[in-house]
Design goal:
Helix content: 40-55%
Pfam families: Ribonuc_red_2_N, Ribonuc_red_lgC, TSCPD
InterPro entries: RdRp_reductase_class-2 (IPR050862), RNR_2_N (IPR013678), RNR_lg_C (IPR000788), RNR_NrdJ/NrdZ (IPR013344), TSCPD_dom (IPR024434)
EC number: 1.17.4.1
Structural class: alpha/beta
Radius of gyration: 29 Å
Mean pLDDT: 84
Function: Catalyzes the reduction of ribonucleotides to deoxyribonucleotides. May function to provide a pool of deoxyribonucleotide precursors for DNA repair during oxygen limitation and/or for immediate growth after restoration of oxygen.
Distance between the termini: 36 Å
Number of strands: 26
Keywords: Cobalamin, Cobalt, Disulfide bond, DNA synthesis, Nucleotide-binding, Oxidoreductase
Length: 967
C-alpha cells in the first residue's frame, strides 16, 4: 500500500488523450448555437408551469432536451440575473469544479493534461455522448451541498434508536431529491419476545411509519412520491406478512374505489392506503430456491439466535410471492447468493440491500454516483460500432466520476465515510434498444444479446482498467487492502464470463476482442496497483438524463414504440416514425422505395405486421415494449442475463407481462431469473394496479377516425361534432345462448347480433328469478345493450370489466375460459372470444384454448391465414350519421405545411413519415394509445399532466423529464 501511495507524489498524473476535442479549438466553437423560448404548460389544466425565454442551446439539441435541461438543471431564480440561461453556463459550472478538484488532488501531471481533460469532458457532454446523473447537475458548482450521488443504501438495527434514526436519515435523503433502500431483516419478528417479556412489533409495523414519512416529505420538495426500497430476507419469520402487505392494500384500494372514493394515483383518497411509497423486495437464497425446485420445507429463523422457529413449505411461500406480484407488482426478488458471490468487499460486510431501482447493490450506509453513455452516438455511418472511441469515452468519464468523490458532500456521516473509503461508481449506458435496431439486430435474439454482452463487457473492463491506472496515481480505495483477494477474484470472474461470450457476427466479435484485451490489462494492472474503486458499473433507468441526451430508449430497455411524439420549435407537434427504423431497413438490405413504403405503413399503423415488402424474419428487429409485436417477458429476462455478468451492480428493469399473465408465468420469470444469474428481478402485469390512471385511447381514436373520414368538398374543411345515434337491431336477428358456471354459480347468457355480425345486445340470467342479484343483472344487461346500440365499442366494455374481482369466482365449465375472477370477468371474456377479431382481443390478452395450444406448439397465438379468430364474420362499424357544422378550420394540407415549416423539422425527420400529431397526444405514450386504441398502463405526470412511460423500474415523463421516483 505504501509503495502504491508513493506514486501519488511522483507527479505522473493519469494519462489523458485528446480523442474527441480539437487542439486549439474550444468544443463550444465547433457547434452552431441558437436562442429558444421554453414555455411549459400542464396539458390537463392549461396552467403555465414554467417560462424562460431566450435560452441558448446547440441547434442539434431537440426542443425536448433543451426544455428538460432548462426546467430541471438551470440554477437561480427565474426572472433574475442569477438565473442560468445557457447550456454553456451549466456545463462550465460542473466541468470547472471537476477540473479544479482533479488538479487539487493530484490526478493530472500538469495544466496541459488538465486542459485535455476539461475539453474532452466538455465535448462529450455538449455533444450528448454521455450525462452525469441528475444530482450533479442540481448541485455541483452551486452554493448547495455538493451532493453527486443519486443512489443510497441505509441500515437499521434491532433497536428503537436505530429505527427512529432510519426515519430521520431517509427523510433527509428524500428532501434532497434522492432515494434510498435498506434491509429490515435485523429487526425482530412479531413472533419473538422483547427483553421486557412482551412481543416485538415486527418490521412490517415499522414500515407504516416510514411509509407515512415518505408520503409526507415527497421527494425534493416536489409533488412526486419519494423513491425507496424495502428488503426482507426470505428466512425472516414475518416474511408472509411482508409479502402480502401491498397485495392486501390493493384489495383495499379496489373496495374503496368501488365505494366511490378517488383512488387514482394522486387522488384525494389514495393517502388512506398504506405502504405505497416503497418498492418491496424479498431477498432469497440459493438454499430457498433449491427447496422450491425440490418441493421441500424451509426454515424461518429467529433474528437474535438464528434458530429455526417455524418451518414452511418452500413452494407454497414461493407461490405466495408470485401471487402478490401478480396482484400488485410487489414484491420483486433479489438473489442474495448471486449478489454476494460478485461482491468485491466481503471482508468489510455483506451486501444486504439495494437502492430503490435495484441497480446499486453495495455495503450498508453507502452511496453511488451514476453516469450513462449514449450508445447510438458511437454507431458510425457504416453501421459499425466504434468500440475504440467508446472505450476512450469510458476512460474520461470514470476519471471524472472518481474525482467527484473528492469534493462531494453526503447526507449522513456514515454514508460519507463508506463512500470515500470504497469509492463506488456506477457507469452505464442508454439507447441500447435503438442501437440494436439500427444495426438490424432483434432485442430478443442471440445476435442482439451477444452485442449487448460485448459492449457491456468492454465498458466495465475499460472502467476497471482506468480504476487500476488511477490507483497507480492517487492510490487504491481505503478498503482495498483487506479485500484485495476478493476484489481480484471478482475481476477474474468478469474475465471468465467475457471468455464465455459466443459471438455471432463480425461486429460483436470485434467489440469482444477489445473487451478481452481490456480485461487482460485490468487483471495485470490490478495485481500491481490495486483498484481505485470498489465497483464501477450499473445499468440505471436513465429517465431524465436520457431525454437530456435525446435518447430514443432508456437504460437497457427496448424501444417503447415505433412511432414517437415530437415537439417542434415555434409550437406544434409531429407524429414521426423512429429515425432508427429507416437506418435499420437499409442495413437489412431494403431499397429506398421499399424503405419509404414500410415507413409509411408504420406511420399509419404503429407496427410492422404485414408491412409491404418486409420479410417476416425481420419482424423481430422492430419488436418493442408496446404495441402489436411487444416483446415476450422472457425476452426481457434473457437480455438482462446477457449483460449481468459484466456489471459491478445490477440492472434497473421491470419485466412487463400482459394483463392475461398467470401466477405461474410470474413464478417462471422469477425462477428463470435465478437460474440465469440475475441479481434482481421485478415484474409488472398490465392493469394490476388501480392507482394507474388510464386514458380513453379507444374513444379518442374512434372520434379522430370519424373526423378524418369526413368528406371534403371545398378548400375549407367543416369541423363536425358527432351526436350519438341509436342503431336498433332488426326485429329478427341471430343470437346465441351460452350456459356457464363460475365458482359453482350457474347462469345463462344470450347475445344478439346485427346482420353484419356486430354484438348488439346481451341478456344475463343468474340465480332465482326475483332475487336481488337477478334484478341487478337484468339492469346491467339493459345498460350494456343500450350502450352497444349507441356505438360503444365492445372492446371498451371488455377492457373495463375483465379482471374485476369479486365472488362468485373460480373455475368455470368453459374450456376457453378456465378461470374467472368474477361473473363480469367471465362474461366479457366470452363475449370477446365470440365477437371480437383476433387482433383486437389478442392485444387484451384474451385467447381461446385452441390458440393457447397453438402458442405452446408454435410460439404464436395467431390463427391460420384468413381466420379472423372469432366465431362470426365481422366488419367495421358504420360511421354515425348525425353531425353538426361548427366552424371551418385549416385543411390537413395547410396544417401539415405549417408544421413542416418549423425550424428543426427538416433535419430531424423524414418528411414522408411525419404528420401532425393528434391534438389529444402530448407524449409517445398517449400517441400509442391513440394509434392502437389500448391504454398505456402508466401514471400521469404530476407536473405537466401527460402520460408517462416506463423507464427501468420507474416511469419518466417525456414532456418535462419528471420521474416517478428515480433520479
Amino acid at each position: 500500500m505504501t509503495e502504491m501511495m508513493d506514486k501519488k507524489t511522483a507527479g505522473e498524473g493519469v494519462r489523458m488523450e485528446r480523442v474527441f476535442s480539437t487542439e486549439g479549438v474550444h468544443p463550444y466553437d465547433e457547434l452552431d448555437w441558437e436562442r429558444r423560448d421554453v414555455v411549459q404548460t400542464n396539458w390537463k389544466t392549461g396552467e403555465a408551469v414554467f417560462e424562460q425565454r431566450g435560452v441558448e442551446f446547440p441547434s442539434t439539441w431537440s426542443l425536448n432536451a433543451s426544455t428538460i435541461v432548462t426546467t430541471k438543471y438551470f440554477r437561480g431564480a427565474v426572472g433574475t440575473e442569477a438565473r442560468e440561461w445557457s447550456l454553456k453556463q451549466l456545463i462550465d459550472r460542473v466541468v470547472s469544479t471537476y477540473v479544479d478538484a482533479g488538479e487539487e488532488h493530484g490526478y493530472f501531471s500538469g495544466p496541459e493534461q488538465a486542459e485535455i481533460f476539461e475539453h474532452e469532458l466538455t465535448w462529450l457532454l455538449v455533444n450528448q455522448y454521455f450525462s452525469f446523473n441528475s444530482p450533479v447537475w442540481f448541485n455541483v458548482g452551486t452554493k448547495s451541498p455538493q451532493q453527486v450521488s443519486a443512489c443510497f443504501i441505509l441500515s437499521v438495527d434491532d433497536s428503537m434508536d436505530s429505527i427512529l434514526n432510519w426515519y430521520k436519515e431517509e427523510g433527509f435523503i428524500f428532501k434532497g431529491g434522492s432515494g434510498a433502500g435498506l434491509n429490515l431483516s435485523r429487526i425482530r419478528s412479531s413472533k419473538e419476545l422483547l427483553s421486557s417479556g412482551g412481543t416485538a412489533s415486527g418490521p412490517v409495523s415499522f414500515m407504516r411509519g416510514a411509509d407515512a414519512s415518505a408520503g409526507t416529505i415527497k421527494s425534493g420538495g416536489a409533488t412526486r412520491r419519494a423513491a425507496k426500497m424495502v428488503v426482507l430476507d426470505v428466512d425472516h419469520p414475518d416474511i408472509v406478512e411482508f409479502v402480502e402487505t401491498k397485495a392486501k392494500e390493493e384489495d383495499k384500494i379496489r373496495a374503496l374505489r368501488d365505494a366511490g372514493f378517488d383512488m387514482d394515483l394522486g387522488g384525494a383518497d389514495i393517502t388512506s392506503v398504506q405502504y405505497q411509497n416503497a418498492n418491496n423486495s424479498v431477498r432469497v437464497t440459493d438454499e430457498f430456491m433449491r427447496a422450491v425446485e425440490e418441493g421441500t420445507d424451509f426454515g424461518l429463523r429467529a433474528r437474535g439466535t438464528h434458530e429455526v422457529i417455524e418451518t414452511v413449505d418452500a413452494r407454497e411461500l414461493f407461490r405466495k410471492i408470485s401471487e402478490a406480484a401478480w396482484a400488485c407488482a410487489d414484491p420483486g426478488l433479489q438473489y442474495d447468493d448471486t449478489i454476494n458471490d460478485w461482491h468485491t468487499n466481503p471482508e468489510t460486510g455483506r451486501i444486504t440491500a439495494s437502492n430503490p431501482c435495484s441497480e446499486y447493490m453495495s455495503l450498508d450506509n453507502s452511496s453511488c454516483n451514476l453516469a450513462s453513455l449514449n450508445l447510438l452516438k458511437f454507431l458510425k455511418d457504416d453501421d459499425t460500432f466504434d468500440a475504440e472511441t467508446f472505450a476512450k469515452a469510458v476512460e474520461v468519464i470514470i476519471t471524472a466520476m472518481d474525482i467527484s468523490i473528492c469534493f462531494a458532500d453526503f447526507p449522513t456521516a456514515p454514508i460519507g465515510d463508506t463512500t470515500r473509503d470504497y469509492r463506488q461508481l456506477g457507469i452505464g449506458y442508454a439507447n441500447l434498444g435503438a442501437l440494436l435496431m439500427a444495426m438490424g439486430l432483434g432485442y430478443d435474439s442471440d445476435g442482439g444479446r451477444s452485442m449487448a454482452a460485448a459492449i457491456t463487457s468492454l465498458m466495465t473492463g475499460t472502467s476497471y482498467k482506468r480504476s487500476a491506472e488511477l490507483a497507480g496515481v492517487v492510490g487504491p480505495y481505503a478498503g482495498y487492502a483487506r479485500n484485495a483477494d476478493a476484489h481480484k477474484r471478482v475481476m477474474r470472474k468478469h474475465q471468465a464470463a467475457n471468455d464465455e461470450v459466443r459471438t455471432l457476427h463480425v461486429e460483436d466479435a470485434r467489440v469482444l476482442k477489445l473487451a478481452t484485451q481490456a480485461w487482460d490489462d485490468t487483471v495485470k494492472l490490478g495485481e500491481v496497483n490495486g483498484y481505485r474503486n470498489a465497483q464501477a458499473s450499473v445499468l440505471a433507468p436513465t429517465g431524465t438524463i436520457g431525454f437530456m441526451m435525446d435518447c430514443d430508449t432508456t437504460g437497457i430497455e427496448p424501444d417503447f414504440s415505433l412511432v414517437k411524439f415530437k415537439k417542434l420549435v415555434g409550437g406544434g407537434s409531429m407524429q414521426i416514425v423512429n429515425q432508427t427504423i429507416p437506418r435499420a431497413l437499409t442495413k437489412l438490405g431494403y431499397q429506398p422505395e421499399q424503405v419509404e413504403a414500410i415507413v409509411d405503413y408504420i406511420a399509419e399503423n404503429g407496427h410492422v405486421i404485414d408491412a409491404p415488402g418486409l420479410r417476416t424474419e425481420h419482424y423481430e428487429v422492430f419488436d418493442t415494449a408496446m404495441g402489436a409485436r411487444s416483446l415476450k417477458p422472457m425476452g426481457h429476462v434473457r437480455m438482462m442475463a446477457a449483460a449481468q455478468p459484466f456489471l459491478s451492480g445490477a440492472i434497473s428493469k421491470t419485466v412487463n407481462l400482459p394483463e392475461s399473465a398467470t401466477v405461474e408465468e410470474i413464478a417462471d420469470v422469477y425462477m428463470e431469473s435465478w437460474k440465469l444469474g440475475l441479481k434482481a428481478t421485478a415484474v409488472y402485469r398490465d392493469n394490476c394496479k388501480v392507482g394507474q390512471p388510464l386514458s380513453d385511447g379507444k374513444k379518442k381514436a374512434a372520434d379522430e377516425d370519424k373526423t378524418e373520414a369526413a368528406p371534403v368538398e371545398t378548400e375549407v374543411v367543416e369541423k363536425v361534432v358527432y351526436k350519438p345515434t341509436r342503431a336498433r337491431l332488426p326485429k329478427s336477428r341471430s343470437a346465441r345462448t351460452t350456459s356457464f358456471t363460475v365458482g359453482g354459480a350457474e347462469g345463462y347468457m344470450t347475445s344478439g347480433a346485427y346482420d353484419d355480425g356486430r354484438l348488439g345486445e346481451v341478456f344475463l340470467k343468474l340465480g332465482k328469478q326475483g332475487s336481488t342479484l337477478a334484478g341487478v343483472m337484468d339492469a346491467f344487461s339493459i345498460a350494456v345493450s343500450v350502450g352497444l346500440q349507441y356505438g360503444v365499442p365492445l372492446e371498451t366494455y371488455v377492457s373495463k370489466f375483465t379482471n374485476l374481482r369479486f365472488e362468485p369466482a373460480g373455475l368455470t365449465d368453459d374450456p376457453d375460459v378456465r378461470m374467472a375472477q368474477s361473473l363480469m370477468d367471465y362474461v366479457f371474456r366470452r363475449l370477446a372470444l365470440d365477437y371480437m377479431p383476433f387482433d383486437e382481443r389478442s392485444m387484451l390478452g384474451i385467447h381461446s384454448a385452441e390458440e393457447r395450444q397453438r402458442h405452446l406448439e408454435t410460439g404464436s397465438y395467431e390463427p391460420p391465414m384468413g381466420d379472423t379468430g372469432t366465431s362470426d364474420q365481422l366488419i367495421s362499424a358504420p360511421v354515425v350519421e348525425a353531425r353538426e357544422v361548427v366552424e371551418p378550420v385549416e385543411t390537413p394540407a395547410e396544417v401539415e405545411a405549417e408544421l413542416l415549416a418549423t425550424e428543426d423539422l427538416a433535419d430531424e425527420v423524414i418528411a414522408e413519415s411525419a404528420k401532425p400529431a393528434p391534438r389529444e397526444a402530448h407524449t409517445s405514450a398517449e400517441l400509442m394509445e391513440k394509434l392502437t386504441g389500448t391504454a398505456v398502463d402508466s401514471p400521469l405526470c404530476m407536473t405537466c399532466g401527460t402520460k408517462m412511460r416506463p423507464a427501468g423500474s420507474c416511469y419518466v415523463c417525456e414532456g418535462c423529464g419528471s420521474t416517478s421516483g428515480c433520479s
